[in-house]
Specification:
- By secondary structure, the protein is an alpha+beta fold.
- It has helices at 33-46, 117-126, 146-156, 163-167, 174-185, 194-207, 218-222, 230-247, and strands at 3-9, 18-24, 69-70, 73-74, 95-99, 108-110, 113-114.
- Strand 1 and strand 2 (18-24) form a beta hairpin.
- The longest helix is centred in the last third of the chain and has 18 residues, at 230-247.
- It starts with a strand and ends with a helix.
Length: 248
């Protein structure tokens, strides 16, 4: 395939950015989207030009590092991660726009790379379970009802890629935060910190500058792991319960 790529280039967060146009040829339909970008960068390096910076790590749809808005869609036209998107999803002669996540809380580092450390700070605020040190407990030491285990696993699938934020017209991080809250709050191991977890994580989320949620549903549509929209409602109930309890 021969493709025209319109790629966002930006030196850093303070520098102005603009779309640059590149032509790539001999692109196999079996290539992943990131392999196609590797091909572009090889050509740029051979021409003495600076390669395009983009995030990637495992390239297996696990780590959540890859983060591109492709033709206006977070991760592209398929409901998967960018690294698992293949060029068979495009046609010969297509023009593809490639941009970074667009959110005030995700400042551009360079080109297509954004700083998602705001997610780390939300996790640090309460996305963990405090346990005494020592050897790991037996797997069945604390029974967990099947429904609760399924609920926890469903939300534990979140890989923190940030597609929910990029897709949301408000730049909200509610789906990400709710996935982390619901994953732990439904388990007996997370019960001791249930109230402080949701209060602290929501507080930090707001402090980081993410937008408010208006339940447009774009976040759940873009999520490559299928975190459901009702997750947000479940977290809101947890937050209200914790807020009332804290006021007593």
């Amino acid at each position: 395939m021969r493709l025209t790529l319109r790629v966002w280039r930006q030196k850093n967060a303070d520098a102005p950015g603009a779309m640059s146009t590149y032509e790539v040829d001999d692109i196999s339909a079996d290539m992943s989207f990131l392999e196609m970008l590797d091909t572009l960068n090889e050509e740029l390096i051979l021409r003495g030009e600076e390669p395009v910076a983009f995030d990637h790590d495992c390239r297996e749809g696990i780590c959540g590092a890859c983060s591109l808005v492709i033709n206006g869609d977070a991760h592209g036209p398929e409901r998967t991660t960018t690294c698992q998107l293949h060029m068979r999803s495009f046609q010969d002669g297509d023009t593809i726009d490639i941009e970074p996540w667009r959110a005030a809380a995700f400042p551009v580092v360079k080109d297509l790379v954004v700083d998602r450390s705001a997610f780390d700070r939300i996790i640090q605020a309460g996305g963990y379970i405090s346990v005494p040190t020592g050897s790991a407990p037996e797997a069945h030491a604390t029974p967990v009802p099947k429904a609760d285990a399924d609920h926890a696993f469903e939300h534990a699938e979140c890989i923190g890629c940030g597609a929910c934020v990029a897709a949301c017209p408000n730049g909200s991080a509610m789906l990400f935060t709710s996935a982390k809250v619901n994953h732990l709050n439904v388990l007996p191991q997370g019960a001791p910190e249930r109230e402080t977890r949701v209060l602290d994580m929501v507080r930090v989320m707001d402090e980081e500058g993410f937008g408010g949620c208006t339940l447009t549903g774009e976040c759940a549509t873009a999520c490559p792991k299928g975190i459901p929209l009702p997750s947000i409602a479940a977290m809101n109930k947890e937050w209200l319960r914790a807020t009332r309890k804290a006021r007593r």
